[in-house]
Amino acid sequence: ARREPPESKRECWYGRCLYTSGRIITEGKFAQAYGRFEARIRIPRGQGIWPAFCMLGVNHKDGWPQCGEIDIMEKVGKEPNLVHGTVHGPGYSGAEGVGKETPLPTRAAYADDFHVYAVEWRPEDIKWFVDGREYFHLTPAGLPAGKQWVFDHPHFLLLNLAVGGGWPGDPDATTTFPQQMTVDYVRAYKL
Questions:
Q1: What does 77-105 look like in DSSP terms, one character per residue?
Q2: Catalytic site residue from 4, 38, 74, 96
Q3: Average pLDDT, stretch 157-168?
Q4: Is 101 a catalytic residue?
């Protein structure tokens, strides 16, 4: 992720781009329903920095959140000792997503080292892990009353380093650039 120079002509949805960053998606190349999905990642740090490793339903062009989204790992820079695992579906998306955060047992910052972020997804449940430690388990019964479980079809993978937004807030004077999210590997297994 980089801060764009003032003379940049790059345009974003809000006007002249203040920051640029990158993402990798497997749409059209790899998608799978169910299995274990993991990546070993060293995430960046700083106010306004928002790295993520997630999955999105292949039917996303029919509408989000009806397609389903599984956030294997999301990190907001203002919380150095927490990562989040969340699902988004119809009636439980955005700030109303269903999930849980987990601190590192050592109280260190996640950005200090590589960590393995994973989910094990079966038709009846999804489990979240950091470094082999399960921290969240969700079944259809764990959704808000009357809400639909939409995790029954293939999803593709996304690795993303976003800057700013409603949840992480904008970078401030303490945020350094450039930022880097280093991915050692990404693996998908059938269970």
A1: TT-TTEEEEEEEBTTB-GGG-EEEEEE-T
A2: 74
A3: 94
A4: no
Would residue 74 show up in a list of annotated catalytic residues for this protein?
yes
CA–CA dist 84, 76 (Å, integer):
9
CA distances from 166 to 76, 128, 162 (A): 11, 24, 12
Give the model's pLDDT for residue 114: 98
Instruction: Write out the DSSP string of 143-179.
Output: SSTT-----SS-EEEEEEEEE--TTT----TT--SS-
Determine contact, residues 116/135, Cβ cutoff 8 Å.
no
pTM for this entry:
0.95
Catalytic residue among 4, 69, 79, 134: 69
34-52 tens-digit pLDDT? 999 999 999 999 999 999 9
Confidence of residue 28 (pLDDT cuts 50, 70, 90): very high
